[in-house]
Amino acid sequence: ESENNFRAIAENANDGILIAVEEGLHVYANRRASEITGYSLDVLRKIGFINLILPDEIDSVLRRYQKMREGHPVSSCYETVIVKKKGAFVPIEITSSLTGWQGQIAVLRIFRDITLRRWKEKTLEKAHNMLEQRVKERTHELIKITEELDRKQKELLRHKSELEKVNKEIGQTNTALSVLARNIAKNKQGTKNAIG
Hints:
This protein is of the alpha+beta class. It has helices spanning 2-11, 31-37, 41-44, 58-69, 115-195, and strands spanning 16-21, 26-29, 77-83, 89-101, 104-113. A 5-stranded antiparallel β-sheet has the order 2-1-5-4-3, with helices on both faces.
């Protein structure tokens, strides 16, 4: 009954499920495992998980399995890449654990295709990088504008200072001209009085 319950759950799962015995051959594969890998259920039951893994990933997967068998702490969830029947690479997230299967030690692997998640992560990273670049560019533009405004402000302050100096000189000149005009007027009056 428990095996029937397991099969009912596994066949309706959204994740691929593979169970391999000590020799590495699968003794169980669900429908979703077939969909993700592209292999029929019959073929999946005749091959091992290593036959699905990207060659560059095999050593890492084997080391993880060996550590798990020896009882060393190892993360049960990790990411790797499988090769589909037609050769396409599929990134997967996989959870592995040791279990028993009909009196034998077996490895239960539950995995899901994370292609869409990876695409979203890359898209998000690309958008983040583009935004970061735009912020850098805009910051650079703002720095240039600020430097130009500072330069113009200094220039205006210099002109203001020059204008204040000229205004002061004009004021002094006006004062001198007023004094001169008064003196001329006095002299003119004095000359008129003397003549007159």
